[in-house]
């Protein structure tokens, strides 16, 4: 019995091989190695998934940043357009605020011119009256010109439909075709914008 016990113990000892470094049996070392490789593969897969998720997040943030930048640029451009339009509206308001007032003064100028013409054709001496009326008319037109009003008197000029209104066309061999021969009523502009067209007779 003692010999059998010794033999069994001897066999058990032979089944174990002591690892040189850690004193771990060979079979257990193989098991640890397998577990270590499995853990390493798992960690590698986890790292790969983390890198992929991180890359997706970076791409998403980059796209969001690009969209935000584009929206900012568009908003800035729109603000600049609004400022420019507002500035233009203010400038136009300043330029043409007097348009209605000028339109009401034009008949006064017409009356002065007709009065001067009638006084010149009347019998008797009206030189002093005509001179006074002419002086008044000149002062009146000078004051209007300071406010940006100009008189359109296109006799002898080519017909311009932007500033002239043709009342009739008359043959005239002494003038080039489409030339203003006579002005029935003078026109006016305010800062180069037409207030009233000149009514004219055009040669043909």
From TrEMBL:
CDD domains linked: GrpE
Gene3D superfamilies: 3.90.20.20, Head domain of nucleotide exchange factor GrpE (2.30.22.10)
GO CC term, one of those recorded: cytosol
GO biological processes: protein folding
Disordered: region residues: 1-56
GO MF terms held by the record: adenyl-nucleotide exchange factor activity; protein homodimerization activity; protein-folding chaperone binding; unfolded protein binding
Comp. bias intervals (Acidic residues): 36-52
Entry's localization field: Cytoplasm
Matches recorded under Pfam families: GrpE
Protein family: Belongs to the GrpE family.
Quaternary state and interactors: Homodimer.
Function noted in UniProt: Participates actively in the response to hyperosmotic and heat shock by preventing the aggregation of stress-denatured proteins, in association with DnaK and GrpE. It is the nucleotide exchange factor for DnaK and may function as a thermosensor. Unfolded proteins bind initially to DnaJ; upon interaction with the DnaJ-bound protein, DnaK hydrolyzes its bound ATP, resulting in the formation of a stable complex. GrpE releases ADP from DnaK; ATP binding to DnaK triggers the release of the substrate protein, thus completing the reaction cycle.
Protein name in UniProt: Protein GrpE
Chain's gene name: grpE
């Amino acid at each position: 019995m003692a010999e059998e016990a010794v033999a069994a113990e001897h066999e058990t000892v032979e089944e174990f091989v002591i690892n040189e470094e850690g004193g771990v049996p060979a079979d257990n070392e193989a098991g640890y190695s397998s577990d270590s490789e499995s853990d390493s593969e798992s960690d590698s897969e986890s790292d790969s998934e983390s890198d992929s998720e991180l890359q997706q997040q970076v791409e998403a943030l980059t796209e969001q940043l690009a969209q935000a930048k584009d929206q900012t640029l568009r908003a800035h451009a729109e603000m600049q357009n609004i400022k420019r339009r507002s500035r233009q509206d203010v400038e136009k308001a300043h330029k043409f605020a007097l348009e209605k007032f000028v339109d009401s003064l034009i008949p006064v100028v017409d009356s002065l011119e007709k009065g001067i013409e009638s006084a010149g054709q009347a019998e008797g001496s009206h030189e002093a009256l005509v001179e006074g009326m002419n002086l008044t008319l000149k002062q009146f037109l000078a004051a209007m010109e300071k406010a940006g009003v100009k008189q359109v008197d296109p006799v002898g000029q080519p017909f311009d439909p932007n500033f002239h209104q043709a009342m009739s066309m008359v043959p005239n061999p002494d003038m080039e075709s489409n030339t203003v021969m006579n002005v029935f009523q003078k026109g006016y502009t305010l800062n180069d914008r037409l207030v009233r067209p000149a009514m004219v007779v055009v040669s043909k």
